[in-house]
C-alpha cells in the first residue's frame, strides 16, 4: 500500500547495474532473439545505453567488474565460456568518457579492484575521469575474491579476507593524500600576463610510508570537481562493514528478505553514527531485476517467455565462484553444507543459517540471476518498489538488465511515470556533480568524513 505521508515521501534513487560483458547477472538471456548484449564491445552500445538511461533520469550507471574468471563450477571454465558468464569482459572505465560526452547528468560508478592497482596510477586515472565528466565519477571499492585472478596477475594466492581490507584502508588513505592533500583549491591560476599557470606555493608534496605502499612527491592531477570520486562499497562481513561504514557514501546490500535487509540497514546506519558520521551520509542500494509490461498478465507472459532463454545453471556457476565452492558436486535435493572459504563471506554465510539445495537455488535463478524479481504492470512494480523501500529503509535500487536494451526501455516507459505520479521519483535532474546530486551538500566529501585529516 502506498501513502502520501512525509515518511514515505523519500525519492527513490536508481542506478542501472551493468558490466562490460555479455552475461552479467541474469545469465542465459543473451540467447534471446531481441537481446543485444553481444554488442558490448561496440562504443555505440554504451552511448545508446547512457542516453536511454538519461531519458529515464537514472542517477547512475553502475559498472561491476571482476579480475579473473569463474572457474570454480565443475572445476573448469567450459560453462563460463559457453554461456559467456562475465567472460569475455572488458575494462569498465574505457567507455565512460564516450558516455559522458553524450549525456549531461548521468553518474558513473566504476568498479576497480585495488589489489591489482598501484594507488598512484589509479588515483591519476580517476581524477582525470572526474575532470572529463565534470564530477560524475564514483568508485566501487573492491578487493577481489577470485583465486583465478591471483594466478593471472602472478600472485601466490588470495590474501586473507580481513588482510585485504587492511590493505584497502591504506590504499584509500594514500588516494586521499593524492586527491585532497597535494593541490590547494586555488593553486591553478592560468595567469598569462605573469606567466603563472600553477602557483608553486600551493602545490605540496605528499609523504607516505606504510605497510603496503610508499609514495613521495606531488600528485600530477590538479583538483577535479569532486576531488575524491563518490565512494561505493559492498562490504557485509564484520571487517567489510567496518571499512564501508567508515568510508563509503553508497553501499550495496546483497539480495535478501526485506526483514533481513531492514536489520542490515539499521546496523549500517548505527555503525556510521558510531564512526562520527551522519547515519544518512551513506545511500543504501539493493540489486533487483524487473519484468514489466502493459498489464500484470502480459508481464507474467513476458517472464515466461524470457525464462525459456535463461540459464539457471549458469547462475549456479556464477554463484559457485562468489562463494568459492563448486555447487556441481551436490545432488539437486541435497542440503549444501557450509564451508569456510576466502571468497564473499556474506554470501557464503547463508549456508550456515539455512538448509539450501541446488533446486532451491535453481528456482531462485529463474532468470539466471539471484536478485529479487519484481513482476507486473508499471503501476504494480512501482507500488512493490515503494513498499520495499519503505519497509527496509534503503534509499534506492541497482536495476539489473534482463533482455537488453528492452528491459531498461520497458522500465523507463512503464515504471518511471508511475513512480513519478506517486511523488517517489524525480521529474528532472538537479544540477551539479554526482555527489551534489546525491546529497545536496556540495561537490566535496563533508568534514566529518575521514578524508578531512588528509586535506591540505
Ligand atoms: C551488489 C553487490 C555487487 C558487487 N559487485 C562486485 C563487483 O563488481 N566486483 C567484485 O569484485 N566484487 C563485487 N562485490 C563483492 C563485494 O565487493 C564484497 O567483496 C562482498 O560484498 C563481500 O563483502 P565481505 O567480504 O565484507 O562479505 C559485490 C557485492 C555486492 C553485494
UniProtKB/TrEMBL annotation:
Domain Luciferase-like: 37-395
GO molecular function: monooxygenase activity; oxidoreductase activity, acting on paired donors, with incorporation or reduction of molecular oxygen
This protein's UniProt keywords: Flavoprotein, FMN, Monooxygenase, Oxidoreductase
Superkingdom, natural source: Bacteria
Flavoprotein in keyword set: yes
Residues that coordinate or bind FMN: 65, 111, 161, 165, 237
Keyword Flavoprotein found: yes
Family stated for the protein in its record: Belongs to the NtaA/SnaA/DszA monooxygenase family.
UniProt-listed PANTHER family: ALKANESULFONATE MONOOXYGENASE-RELATED, C2H2 FINGER DOMAIN TRANSCRIPTION FACTOR (EUROFUNG)-RELATED
Stated name of the protein: Luciferase-like domain-containing protein
Originating species: Acinetobacter rudis CIP 110305
Phylogenetic classification of the source organism: Bacteria, Pseudomonadati, Pseudomonadota, Gammaproteobacteria, Moraxellales
